[in-house]
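Example 3.2
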Amino acid sequence: MPEAVSPNGVWVRFQCGTLHGAHFLAFTGTPLLGKERKTSKWFGEYVSEYNFQQAMEDQATVPLFYEKRVPEVLIQNDDLGDEFYELLEDEDLDEAQQQKLEKKFAREMEVIKRDDRLTTIAQDIVYHFPRRGYLGKGMVVTVDKFTAVKMYNKVKQQWQAEIKRLRGLIKSSSNDLQKAKFKKIISYMKSVEMAVVISDPRAGEEKFAKVGLDINPHANRLEQLDKHGHDIEFNFKDPEHPLQLVFVCAMWLTGFDAQTISTLYLDKPMKDHTLMQTIARANRVAAYKIKGHHGQFVEKKNGELVDYYNVFRNMKKALSDYAQGEEDGAEPPVQEKAELFNLLDDAITQTITFCDERNINLVAIADVKDIFKNIALFEEYADILLSRDEWRKSYYVYDNTVTSLYEACKPEIFTQPARPLIAVIQYLRGVIDVHVEQADIDAVSQRIAELLDESVVVDDAEKFTTKEHQAEYQIVQKGKTWDLSKIDFARLKEDFAEAQYKNIEITEMRAFIEDKLRQMLEQNHNRIDFAQKLQEIVDKYNSGGSATENYFADLMTFAEGLKEEDERHVREGLSEDELELYDTLRKDKLTQAEEQKVKLAAKHLITRLLDEHPKVLVQDWWKDSQTQQRVKAAVEEVLDEDLPKSYDRVLFKQKADKVFDLIVEFAASSRKWAA
């Protein structure tokens, strides 16, 4: 029986039975009415279950972490009955229900909606939202419609105050890196749009007015379409749209999915299935990466739940009933955010252990004064990791894990004890990237500098001075680049013999060769043999089949062959485009006269398709079967006229089809002369 993830991300259960004598199959999402399996009273026993925990293990959803930030002014009543929660689930209460809520639960409602408490929460949201690692969409869940509007007003007011405060810090700061960081936060904050999302707002216009709230702007926003004809729901689901933060009380808490929602601010009493449905808004897997303040693109690795009402006093029971199924002792799918810090520290420890096993002492380098000026030690460590592809790739996994967890720990990590090893791990990765990727040194230096958050790295002012923090620590060893046509191979071999860090030399040469080969393959797809040969050289070294010196010599020999190939079109008297067609058309054992005929065919074909009349490469010709046939006919006509007679009918058809397919590929991808 197949299983599926519920749109609510909690359960999907398949059930079978009979109705009016016919067999049927149905699936139910949340709510399941608890462990009592009340749905089975109607539908019979479950054929298959797929719960919250299983969905997370299968990576169908992301893990959720929560942090309780309960304002002290909230005095909670743990004896509230189901009626209280049920009333709050209904966004559109009638007059009698509203009076019951305000009278019977007056004390609780008064505390929840207390003005100074809401101001405190608004200030916290304004600090938290722009400083997260993954800058996904957010939802503020309030107790009712009126509070949703009030919280919107308070957050907007505090938002502007925070921008003003940051501008003041920029003006007074002498730290260039710190000023750049604040400017990026301001830039993000200015880009964010917010909205109130409630049902039928115009119906309660008078009620809003009585409590001093103007609902009209929010009603207008809910009704309007943008210039593309998209409504507010479409905009919020669009990861690139600036609508980033919405204020709700019941709308969009169920049956609504926006993959990039990563943060929920909860300030509404909830329990059981309502709570589970709500938190599932943040557990969607999102392929969309978001550019963080440090310039790198960040993936959504988890969802975050910020709890202002302490709804998680009800979480244990809800998770037991609706998320984990029957397994006892299973790890809860929603954990306190403090666990993220434990995971981060564990990832750092594992990275240290991995490096220690390869004589790389990250702890020692973190204890050295002027950490990031000690470029020689970073170069030495990079050289060790570059000695084997497996080691380098494994280190990337460790670094990616540490960085992802660090991003997930924001912004709370800024108030945590310093973790300088995060910066050391990231900086070493940056040094490696310079050599492996032939990365732009200035871009890498800036990225690494910005990753070194002062609040995370600094635990000793003398060890990390303001002058250093202004990015004076830069990777001084720049990646090498060459011009293949001017390489002095004899000199390169002499330099390699004297080089201190031979693995770095090999890595830079290999990176150059790979990049050049990529360019040459784009020019001529027939050079695939070169790619295979290079992979054989790399595999031989990684398997221990050749020493470092032999590896470098093999790369030099390969580079010399690559240079000859790069210049071959000149020797053949052809352009690069003509050479590609010539290589596609040629066959084994051609006489010198036949080679000249194939070259003529390659030249004639490009001339016919681009310059001669009647014109065949019209706009978007490859999208229509008739225009495709005209191009194919022109190709066959030229080849029939120019190719040697030794090309029999079968070989002629193979070559003509191959050339035509190549031209279609160029046109469809807007590449080269056929675009």
